[in-house]
Amino acid sequence: MPLASDTILTRPLGLRDEATARLQHWRAALRPRVVAAACLGASVLALAAFLGFGDDPLAGEPYAVATVELRAPSTPVPEPAVPLRPDPASRSAGEVERASGVSVTRPDGTAAPDSVVIRVPGNGPIQLSPAPDPRLSERGRYGTLPKIGPDGARPLDVYARPEASGLERGGAVAGRIALVVSGLGIGQAATQDAVQRLAPAISLAFAPYGADVIRSAARAREAGHEVLVQAPMEPFDYPDNDPGPQTLLAGSKPAENLDRLAFVLARVPGAVGVMNFMGARLTSESAALEPVLREIGGRGLGFLDDGTSPRSLAREIGRKAKVPVARAEIVVDAVPRPDAIDRELARLEEAARKSGFALGSATALPLSIDRIARWSRDLESRGILLVPASRALRAGS
Questions:
Q1: CB-based burial label for 89 (10 Å; 0-12, 13-18, 19+)
Q2: Are strands 302-305 and 273-278 parallel, antiparallel or unpaired?
Q3: Pairing relation of β-strands 227-233 and 273-278?
Q4: Which residue, 45, 292, 303, 306, is the most exposed by fewest CB within 10 angstroms?
């Protein structure tokens, strides 16, 4: 082995030993890797220590610690006692009537079970009784026919529109008017217009020939209109002027006319009565008209004469047969012009002021519907109250 001194002394100046040079080269190459390994090892140890011995279960996510303090439950404050309402069954009929505002009338010598409610107050729209009522119906050849109930109830009374107690704006009532618009159920546009535009207190009369007359009449009742059915009757110029295939004829046997009347009555369930469609000749002959009126009255209905024929005997025969009959005093649209209709409506209003009540009739012409709708808008502000046509029929029955 050469001596160190030999190596130093014998080596040329500026030259390094070859082994030494290689050693230094490897040291220089390994130094960064050692440092990196040391850093990585330190990181692993720190992470292991943090996870193994740390108290952070959320692995570094931020969190807060809240202290929950348990307290003894407080004593509930008793609620004030609410007085019990009296049992309705223990209240007298008078107390119930005063509390509800319902007006009740009783026949002499009868008690509460026999009472008849005549008015139920309320601010909502007036609702008519459902129709047909099974108590007031029977099956006929052409469908459901009206009849008087086992307790004596009449369709005229049950299906009638209840009357309002007074003017909505307050004040005294100067007069009452019942107005019937006829010819509904054939033209759908006119029928819908009348149902929607006319005041609900105006009664509507339906012809029996409409394809959808049953549904149309039901819609009218849902809107609050009282309804009647029109019976086609023979005019003087028949058959040139023909009311239709079910026309009641002056020369027919009573059984034939009553069969045709049954067809008419079955077409409009919920009708309070029958109104003539034409019929100047039939209503002028007592022998032909009396059986028809007796059948109408026997089924609990009334007959309303539209007032177009001055020769009609309906009221006289009805009084004799004890059948509810009323006759229109004024035909509003006998002359179908706006000025003429307005003039007749004013005359109807004046008649109501003089006698307290007036009954008028009109047809479902678009012009008539428009003028009547305009006239009735502010009628109550003039002290006039619209009432259903059944008022006139029930007044004399």
A1: exposed
A2: parallel
A3: parallel
A4: 45
Q: List the beta bridge partners of residue 179.
A: 360
- Rounded distance, CA 229 to CA 304, Å? 10
pLDDT classification of 98: cutoffs 50, 70, 90 = very low
pLDDT per residue as tens digits for the range 291-335? 999 999 999 999 999 999 999 999 999 999 999 999 999 999 999
33-47, 103-117, 373-387, range with greatest mean pLDDT = 373-387
Collapse the DSSP code of 384 into the 3-class scheme (helix H, G, I; strand E, B; otherwise coil) and give the result. Answer: strand
For residue 256, the one-letter residue type is E
Whether residue 169 contacts residue 382, with contact meaning beta carbons closer than 8 Å, is answered with: no
Element (H, E) at 344: helix 338-355
How many other β-carbons are positioned within 10 Å of the β-carbon of residue 140? 15
- Which DSSP string corresponds to 92-123? -HHHHHHHH--EEE--TT--GGG-EEEE---S
Which residue in this structure is represented by tokens 């002499």? 108
Cβ atoms of 330 and 344 closer than 8 Å: yes
Handedness of CA 145, 147, 149, 154 (dihedral sign): positive
Evaluate whether 168 touches 314 at the Cβ level (below 8 Å). no
Stated pTM of the model: 0.70
CB-based burial label for 239 (10 Å; 0-12, 13-18, 19+): exposed
| Of the candidates 281, 271, 216, the residue with the CA atom closest to the CA atom of residue 249 | 281
Calculate the CA 380 to chain-centre distance. Answer: 24
Q: Decide if 243 contacts 232 (C-beta within 8 A).
A: yes
> In the structure encoding, which two tokens stand for residue 90, read together?
């223990």
> What is residue 162's DSSP assignment?
P
Torsional class of 84: left (φ above 0), alpha (ψ -120 to 50), beta (otherwise): beta
* Distance in angstroms between the alpha carbons of the first and the last residue of the chain: 157
CB of 137 closer than 8 Å to CB of 145? yes
Give buried/exposed letters for 318-349 (b at 16+ CB in 10 A, else e): beebebbbbbbbbbbbeeeeeeebeebbeebb
